[in-house]
Design goal:
By secondary structure, this protein is of the alpha/beta class. The protein has eight helices and 15 strands. The longest helix is centred in the first third of the chain and has 14 residues.
Amino acid sequence: MNTYDIICIGAGPTGLATAIEAKRAGMQPLVIDKACLCNSLYHYPVNMVFFTTPELLEIGDLPLVSAAEKPTRLEALKYYRKAAEHYELELRLYERVTHVDGNDGNFTVVTKTEKGAKERYRSKKIAVATGYYDLPNLLGVPGENLPHVSHYYTEPHAFWKQDVVVIGGKNSAAEAALDLYRNGAKVTLVHRGKELGATIKYWVRPDIENRIKAGQINALLNTRVEEITKDEVVVENHAQTKRILAKQVFALTGYHPDFSFMESMGVKLDPESKRPALDPNTLESNVPGIHLAGVVIGGRHTGEIFIENGRFHGKQIVEALKK
């Protein structure tokens, strides 16, 4: 069994950037992910366009070329594939890390493949960059697991002239509701808050608010979902129960990092914020040899770290290892 200098758990942009920096420093990295390369980006809405410009998504000093001012999901996916190929990164995709044994300088990472086989990899250091998009914040209501309920928005075509309920009040929910409306769906937006989220993008807010005022999107604010049935969403609004027709339900209530996985390695998390204990300079956690990168550093505050700033965490980690 080979011994790697660092194993990066997570093959998103931050994990890839960390592996690239390690390789450029003469180290031997390995990247492991339970799904495909950049699995979170792969599950973004099909026609999504990034808010940021191409250079802010770049890793490994490789240029990201896009046809328009802002790159699309497809352009980003192609870019990160090419980056992995350019640096000839060693990857183990579709392998879920089940646990990490050992200690600083001598870790063993145990994985399980799609076919159920168990694999083991030895490494001197660990970098956890598992993101958060794979773990949705569940509503915890009956019917949430029905086949027509999704925590991810894809595309609107199939819901033309159909009743669709979007649950949530932040960017993802607002953008999905607008996209569905513009493609002919009959949309109801359900949000437990008294008003839409304060972090909605400045150009999205007037659009969604105007659609609501015009009655083009039905909005139920200060409303809680009580149950989801095969063709309705049952909500409680001002002490009254309402039933809303729904061929499809998009529960876009946010996501969170895999806190239990970090705790299984001994990483201490703040009870309230779930922020991990770590050195802000080296990004090493309270467990010697285990470093953290990307959105996992923010705990519950997932809106603080994006590709734009998380991509630099690899440089911090590798600089610390070189010293």
